[in-house]
Amino acid sequence: MSEEIIKAVGVTKRFGALTAVDRVDYTLREFEVAGIIGSNGAGKTTFFNLLTGYFPHDEGTIFYKGQDLARKTPQQRVAMGMTRTFQLTSTFDNLSVIDNLVLVFFRAHRKSSLLNLLLNTCKRHRNEEKILSTLETFDLQDVRDRQVKHLSLGEKRRLEIAMAVLAEPTVLLLDEPLAGLAESEIKGILEVLGRQVGKQTILIVEHKISHVKDFLQRLTVMHEGRIIAEGGYEECLAHPEVRRSYWQIDVDAEAGGHASG
To answer: Are residues 60 and 24 in contact, defined by beta-carbon separation less than 8 angstroms?
Structure first.
């Protein structure tokens, strides 16, 4: 059994009278590729925001490598090795694709300040081997000199994930990275993410199960703030509560139909 990277124990988050995350226990292990799915309002993105520090939790404890994260800011969690992407891409839109990669690489690996890099121009760093390799891995060579604001949504999403991977975090947290993409773009994103399997621990929050079924090693299904199933894809798919809550299949009626047949 591999080492625990993230562990949530009894984590709860309330917004007024609404309990968005309700006493959730969750463990993510080293080099695991795991996913959390659920319908709109299931609590998956709120839980993701608790893990990454964008919301404080009201009850319970979140550990990263055994350390309590209660007082850690999102920036401190990034410094510890947790890097996330957002549903809306987080890039420097007025810079070129390659300069976005240069900024991320040197902030992560050379500890240069963003201001220092901008003042001293990115040009001299554009031939860094890891940056060129990332362009190739994420199929961004043809748009390397294009300003990000002129990219398609799929190209921009690939760039954002490339930036997150280039920073080489211990845990890569992806919040609905496939949202709004065409099927061909989704296929490309999953292919490049697949190359990170075994290199990084990956947690992906997604709305549609069909997009991630072949990518994940473990699936967790949330509904109304709680985990209702966890395990392999087929196992979760067949779980009565998932069929009832996620697929909205009348399990009792279905069972009655089989019994009478």
So the answer is: yes
